[in-house]
Amino acid sequence: MLKTYRGSCHCGAVKFEAELDLTQGSYRCNCSICRRTRFWPAVARPEGFRLLSGEADLTQYLFNTRKNRHYFCRHCGVRAFGVGTETPVGTMYGVNLGCLENVSEEELARVPITYVDGRSDKFAPPEHFSHL
To answer: With contact defined as beta carbons under 8 Å apart, do 131 and 119 qualify?
Structure first.
């Protein structure tokens, strides 16, 4: 069931709301950027994501195909969300679960995780993933 969550970067300059169904799971990926930033997203559809403040405080990073947009707060460096355009579900917002404010540790512990082999561009689990 969709629920509206609020979130922010660490310093609070970037604030957002996202409609997420945490029972549907989240993702951990071993691609070069997700592995390095420890990004743990759940998916929000474009109509279910609202940037409340901080658009001018975001820095965008593009790499490889330059189609997926990775956003970081230019003050604290936290990656609160990204926009994926090359995904099996089309355009989506990847919302960093670590940035959600109104979710308990217990609720986070119950979120199912799908492991994705982004290093080889396969949407299947990598051989090793416990470190993700």
So the answer is: no
pLDDT at residue 50 is higher than 70: yes
Q: List CB contacts of 25: < 8 A, sequence separation 6 or more.
A: 42, 111, 112, 113, 114
- The string of DSSP letters for 70-111 reads EEEETTT----EEEESSSTTSSEEEEEGGGBSS--HHHHHT-
61-100 tens-digit pLDDT: 998 777 789 999 999 999 999 998 877 778 999 999 999 9
115 pLDDT tier (thresholds 50, 70, 90):
confident
Q: Is the pLDDT of residue 102 over 90?
A: no
Q: Where are the domains of the chain?
A: 3-116
Task: Report, at the CATH architecture level, how domain 3-116 is classified.
Answer: Beta Complex (2.170)
In whole angstroms, how far apart are CA 84 and each of 48, 62, 74, 87, 89?
14, 11, 20, 6, 9
Calculate the alpha carbon distances from 45 to 18, 69, 126 in Å: 9, 15, 25
